[in-house]
Amino acid sequence: MNGTGFWKAGFFLALALALGGATAAVSAGAAGQASEQADKAAKLEALRKKIRQLQVSLGETRNRQQALRQQLKSTEKEIGRLSRSLKKTREQLRRQKQALEHLQVRHQEQQAALARQREALRRQILASYTMGRQGYLKIILNQQDPAQIGRTLAYYDYFNRARAEQIESIQSQLREIAALEAQINHESAALQTLFSQQEAQVQKKEQQRAKRRAVLVKLDREIHTKEQRLQVFLQDEKNLARLLSQLQAVLSDIAPDAGEARPFHAAKGRLLWPAEGKIGARFGSRRKNAGKLRWQGLVINAAEGEAVRSIHAGRVAFADWLRGFGLLVIIDHGKGYMSLYAHNQSLYKSVGEWVSRGEVIATVGSSGGRADPGLYFEIRHNGKPTNPLKWLQARK
User: Fold this and answer.
1) Does the pLDDT at position 57 exceed 90?
2) Where are the beta strands (DSSP E) in the chain?
3) pTM of this structure
């Protein structure tokens, strides 16, 4: 082999080695890239899996919260029903006691009248005795003077008739007393039945209260951060705004009551307060644990069971449980004006009913998840909240 051949052989060998090295490098790079892509895909799948797990968890949390709110709704509505029923029973008890007391007074009066009748009869018998304990025929035979006989017989007849009347009166009194005693026994039995009914209602109400407390504790565990509470408050307000918008659309086709004495807007500054109590939160003040969210009405701290009254005449547009507001009454006053009464214990009015100024529409409670009893009150015009203190009459 000459020099040229050796050179060619060396060139091709070097070329082969270079190509082999390049191929190996390319293969190694491809393998590394594939490994990196596989790693990214694995991480992405892991992330997706976490997201799915989080969605499932959030969904379960929402479902649990929804179930708990449904329990809270049914429990608070049952407490409202029991409170309303208990109030009715107590009113029946009051009337029953009055009726029983009236019967007992009448019974005492009849007993006193009977005692007087018996005393009158005793005097008559005694008078008859003083006349000589003589029979009718004997009196005639013993008398010599005809005039005296006439007077004696007249007296005798008078005593006999008076005695018969007294005896009949006594018998009548005895019959009336017996009837009164039977009626008193009947009323006493009815009273005892009402007492038992009231006791059962109180026990059932306390059971529902305990159930409500347990539900609130579970809800509090589910909503434990400020952000979550803020979201709940915001959603509750959106629900209320949507409800008011729907109600206004429905009520716009219904003519206002012709008996309305004064338009709502004309009563500004003279409207009645919906409940007695101190102001717990004012319009525009910040809500606790709700970030920058502010109150759109008044919180009036009042005792549970106190009367809630309509501030002005109007028509009940809503009377039911609403999340965040509990047992809620909304009254339409016409011209876009509405008043809202929330967190009630019991509702006394139904949708469509007309109410007058000062009429009792509910009782103060703590429904909707409140810890303490109180009334939340709003006035809205065309769905927008306005400061109630500018509308209500000034307190002394």
Assistant:
1) no
2) 278-281, 298-301, 307-309, 314-322, 326-334, 337-347, 354-355, 360-364, 375-381, 384-386
3) 0.60
